[in-house]
């Protein structure tokens, strides 16, 4: 049997998608990944076959830099980073205005490339990123059964009454003006209508008999998989979802890192792990405030201090200020490995960070910047297993208090988090329960080819 995984050329997307494929790999089946060249090393590290498929202009091998993007994409990335400095509504507005070029890139050409690829690979099962809209058009119009994976917070798939790009929830610490929210929602509705018109135009070209969509952002595949813990999702919203399965998490196994293993073995002090993911680590100003909070905490918490691991991405470590000798600071760190030993973590509330931390039973201080990060942060804050702060407004003192609170989590949320971690880890050693759940969900599909 052959599994085909279709992924954008972004590490943050490929890591969970490839992890789902490990269940087929363990069963001795063939796994083929279709993605761009930037993530080729990740595919090789998983031991999968790779075929080239470029789903968009941008790419991200693990740490993104604007100067390494194609012309036009570099300026768009800088514009996004600038928008995050202006706040929640400004960032969401910027992303909404860029939506068509981001998510529906060369739809007919890419759709036909996907159809040709399916003919060549002859897969029995197909998994595709929900946000790979052009690829999904190819599968839909060719009648190829496939699993559609929502990798972000489930709000990435809007339900009745929601519009894509407008968060259904956000932490109370964000207090946008009602007029700004009204303008944002109106913009998201205009973008939805424009995006759907583009989807329908491509759909008609690929399959003139196809039924047009009323909202392309709500279109799903034959099997809908949500890479998110059901325990953290609002049950009322769950009832509005189309037929689906929550995977919980897809936590990759990482290659041994000699430096990290030696650092972990060097002390029994509690560890705080810090990462803003492969995109938002560019916000060195926020990382610097987190670092200062941890420096203060290090000499006073429980009279013994903490040890700190920070993934700085493209940010110069010098921006963090004085770095204590006991800290581990690198551009990229093995996140899953460090979370398994961490007592608390500081995150941008990206879905990989959230699901991996919950699987490890690690409470989070959340500093969301964009898209579904707001809904993800709100869910953890409401569950008591995270504290949400505004990354542009939170003071060093507020960040420090939040970290202290997560390090000394109250018994009730601690028990809830431990139970969630046990559920997400399941009985499978690698990848947690998610890959097995995906495997079982796809078993019901007819053969793709």
TrEMBL record:
Similarity-based family: Belongs to the UDP-glycosyltransferase family.
SUPFAM superfamilies per the UniProt record, alphabetical: UDP-Glycosyltransferase/glycogen phosphorylase
Sorted UniProt keywords: Glycosyltransferase, Transferase
Domain of life per record: Bacteria
Pfam families (alphabetical): UDPGT
Organism name: Cryobacterium frigoriphilum
Lineage: Bacteria, Bacillati, Actinomycetota, Actinomycetes, Micrococcales
Name recorded for this polypeptide: Glycosyltransferase
Keyword presence, Glycosyltransferase: yes
Membrane-spanning ranges: none
PANTHER family on file: STEROL 3-BETA-GLUCOSYLTRANSFERASE, STEROL 3-BETA-GLUCOSYLTRANSFERASE UGT80A2
Biological processes, Gene Ontology terms: antibiotic biosynthetic process
One GO MF term: UDP-glycosyltransferase activity
